[in-house]
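Is beta-D-fucopyranose placement plausible here? Inputs below.
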Amino acid sequence: MIHKRSDFPDGFLFGAATSAYQIEGHKFGGAGRAMWDDFAATPGNVVRAEDGALACDHYHRYGADLDLLKDAGFDAYRFSTSWARVMPDGRNVNPEGLDFYDRLTDGMLERGLKPCATLYHWELPSALADQGGWRNRDIAGWFGDFTGAVMERLGDRMYSVATINEFWCVSWLSHFLGHHAPGLRDIRATARAMHHVLLAHGTSIERMRGLGVQNLGAVFNMEWAAPADDSPEAAEAAALYDDIYNHFFVSGAFKGTYPDRLVTALGDHFPEGWQDDMATISAPLDWAGINYYTRSLLAADDGPWPHLRAVEGPLEKTQMGWEIYPKGLHDFLVRTAREYTGDLPIYVTENGMSNADTVVNGAVDDAARIAYFNSHLSAVRNAIGKGVPVKGYMAWSLLDNYEWALGYEKRFGMVHVDFETLERIPKASWHAFKQMLAG
Ligand code: FCB
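Reply from A.M.:
I modeled the complex. Tokens:
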């Protein structure tokens, strides 16, 4: 890598991120059915109808996986606590589930790794999906209770806790575009999910404050939105996309307001009295997390609202077909601090690329991933140079894993996983991080 640890401020945290359903193996340990099991079992939703039943078998191999983090010299590990594992029916605790996260936490602490928990990374119990899932306002209370169950057990040992991973994915991607579970394409369901996911977040924060849990935040995904051409229509499409994707959730959480044009377009679909929830939604936070991968080019479209469509861009792309655009990360860090979070610490909670990695003579040369990390770490350094309080960077991901609707085919790991034998092989990018973190 072109960077060294010493190029970053003292105490800057380097970590790697994963999530429960993507790596653990959901058939183990008494976990309940999650909505991703149902989504994957429905033809046409997921490549080869793959699911997270076995995944990387991290449930049994977590010790060796934590060793990989420690041996590379990482400071922190961002993991998630599966709701369906901890509460198989969404409401009652499975002691085995909490025991697993207890062992995992101790495993991190024994290795000197800072535990950075994310409470919800999409493992909604099917039993709650049956009751409307994110469309049902009661989910705020259910999520509060799940928060309590997890944090009464783990809260005193966490370095940081995030409530929700990627509000846009939980609501828009899953209820409007239908690409993720529960696979709805319904504007009213979307508007309700957008509001309820924020209400659940705020309720969870209040619950954790009551328990004395420290260092609370949330993780927002952002995708730079640029007009596809010079027309005013394309500029309008990009601005609307930017509001939906990059402003709505962060504005709710940090300002207690929603962008005007989204209140106009979606307000009739929000639950009655939604304005009264904004105080809970904007409960004070200690930090913000940004997940960043790419940008989109937007053009106007004749269809119904939001009258826009994404257009393929000219930049070099990853295996996902996502354009590589590190400047977007810099610009989001600067903009988020300026418009929303001020002096609060910002963490890059996910960043990385999928690559068609192959094992050759027992090694994986993922030079493209090293270049991706390099260019995005440069973007982080530029933002820090401008005074943005970026306090850490988490690479996505430690392991190749279950990439949701794309199954096991897209590899994001710094460590290669053979999904037949479950053997782990650190890739060149893992070795590059190790060298970087020692310098
Ligand atoms: C993010 C998700 C994460 C992973 C990466 C590639 O949107 O948080 O689980 O799928 O994308």
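Short version: The pocket of beta-D-fucopyranose is lined by residues 19, 22, 165-166, 169, 221, 291, 350, 396, 403-404, 412 (CB under 6 Å).
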